[in-house]
Each structure stands twice: as C-alpha cells, then as structure tokens.
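Known limitations

Structure tokens in this collection are predictions and should be treated as such. Users comparing against experimental data should check residue numbering before alignment. To illustrate the layout, the record for Cytochrome P450 is reproduced below. The input appears on top and the generated tokens appear beneath it.
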Amino acid sequence: MNAARPHRMDSAGGCPHAANARLLAQGSVAPVVLPGDVPGMAVVGHEALKRFLTHPDVAKGAEHFTALRDGRIPAGWPLRTFATVPGMTTADGADHRRLRSLVGQAFTARRVAELRPRVEALTARLLDGLDRAARAGDGVADLRRHLALPLPLGTICELLGVPDEHHDRLHRLSSLVVSTDIGPEEVTAANQEMAETLGAVVAARRAAPGDDLTSALIAARDAGGDRLGEGELIGTLLLMVVAGHETTLNLVTNAVRALCAHRDQLGLLLDGRAHWADAVEETLRWDSPVSHFPFRYPTRDLTLDGTLVPAGTPVLAGYSAAGRDKDAHGPDAERFDITRTARGTAVRHLSLGHGPHYCLGAPLARMEATIALERLFTRFPDLDLAVPEASLPRVPSFVGNSVRTLPVRLGGGGAAR
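Generated tokens:
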C-alpha cells in the first residue's frame, strides 16, 4: 500500500495544481483526508483514473460508502449531497441505465443543436451588457458575472423551463452545493431550499407542461413504462442545474484567464491558425473546471497501481491532476498549448468524465464555451485581466476549480461586429 502521508484536502479551495504535482510525484493514487477528518482516496494519474472510472468493482451508490452506511457521516457534512442525491450520479447498473435513458430521451442531440441560435443570440446580448458595464466602470467589468455565469445558467434554465425569477437563487444554491468550506447548518438549509425551489418548478410544469426538459422528464417513461420517481426527478434536476452551469461557468472563466496569460496562443486563434474548439479542449485538460469530483467506492478491496483502496472508501476523481499528468500528456503537460490536437500530440483528457457516467451535457458545454470565446475575443481582441492573476479570489471548493471574479479591461473595440 502507498505509505504516503494522507493529503488533507483544502476545504477553502485554492489553486490545485501545486498540490496535484506533489501528489503525482508520489504516485497515481493518494490517500486523502476529507472535511470532518473523513478518510478517503484520490485517483490523480490519468491512466489510473481512466481504469478506475470503468472498473467493474467500483460503484456510485451510497450504500457502498462504509462510513455513511455506519452512521459516521453527519447530515450537515458538506459533501453529503454528492453521495446521497437521488439520480444518475449515485446510481449503478440497470438503475443508472434506466435513469440515463429517461434523461437521454429529453436531452437529445437535436435539442442541443436547436439551442445554438439561442446561445449565439444570448452571447451577443451578454457581450453588449459586458461592454456597457465596462464603460460604466472605468473600462473594467467582471466577465464572470456578465458573461461566464449568465450564458450557461440562462441556457440550462431555458432548457429546463425554469422561470427567470429562480435563476439567481439557483446559482447561489448551486454554489453552496459545490462548496466544501461551509458549516452543517448552511449545508442543510441550502439543500432544503434547493429541493423546495426545484419542487416549485416541477409543480408549475405539471400544472402547465411546456416544450422544456422538465416537462419531458415528467412525461418520460422507459421501456418498462416507469417514470422518474419524485426524488429521482428532483435529484436529476439538481444535477442538471449544478453541472449544467457551474462546469461551463468555470470552463469559460478558466479559458479567458489562460488566453489572457498566453497572448501567443490567443494570436493563433485570432489569426485563424488554430480553432476555438481546441482552446476549449486544452482548457479542459490544463485547468479542468472540476478539480476533484466525489464519489466512487470500491465494492471490494482494490489495488490500483500498487496502492490498496479498501472497500467502501470514498474516492475522488482527480480530474485537474490527471490533466497535467506528464506520463500521459508528455513532459510539457504543465504548458498551455492549444496546438496539441493539430500536432497530433493530444491525449484525450478525462475532465468531462469517462465510461458509463460520462457527462451527458458535454456537447452543450463545449458549444457554449466555444461560442463564448470566439465571440468575446473577436469583438474585444485586446481584452486582458484588470488585476494580477494571483490576486483573483478562488472559489471556496476543492470540487470546483476557478476564481470567483474575473475583472477585465476590454481594450479597444466594443461595437458589435
């Protein structure tokens, strides 16, 4: 077994890459200490994580979480929602296939493609708003607030049929769900308010069904005629609200930071010598929007790359670490390089998952981020950070990986092009 001293996960978040490099230097699997002194493990190596995510003796169901099953995890534990929310992320086998099939019937490629014109129109409106905010703020505006957040939040809420009055509340609650540094009372209150808010959305759609995903999920049946149960429905909506905007919010934010810090790479994009989609993929690899995702559990004692992972241990998927694993991505893995794909040196990253639980919303996230980056920098090619990168406050989570604000100067331009 790996004899390394357990790494204490930083509940306050912070940039993960220095700690990830230390963990990778010790091996591909690391013992960790979760909030509340709960022992766990993290799989940080690319190949080990790829195998772990598809291992037949690894499960997602909370019944396999030994400490939870034994009553040693309190109700207000900040990561409890990840373990217990009903839905695809905590289901296995036939149950997972049933739930994913029901969601897939409503969340189809056609629906995503139909969203493109609305994503493009929303992006244009948000860029107008970003320009106005900068003009009113001595040339500085918070790009996260004016573009990176409202684009995916507005899109997923439109897809789900969530009224505008719930948007800000759902983002606030989503931020609390993924936070790892809040107390038990706040955790409990946030989960209760989230369930109540989504319950109100479901009730409204039941009373007046529309052409939206919530209505489709309410009506959807699998091959056996089963509908989603009430808990599964609320859990599925929670997953889609959180994953449907928090991930893309971080992705767009991280991509803008990366391109501002690597003007040579931005120049390739603006000159048409590289594709915006490649910038999205390199950001996903180099600065994954999700750093350590909870949880999977070995259903038996499992040895992974020489390290014993005991049955029932909560295991984090270390996406941000795997993205910079030199064994997979080469000796320059820590370098941001959008030409990897064109040069044929890119190894497919794992930042949107792998295997049966691969992110169902990946095509939508990629589309939103690609449109946002292209339109943003085409309109504001001189855009740059308004403060030093090191001074940007980090999101308070080791699950999410980004910064809480992104003040930028737009530079020249501003008129719609």
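For this record: The two ends are 59 Å apart (CA to CA). The mean pLDDT is 92. Please report discrepancies through the issue tracker.
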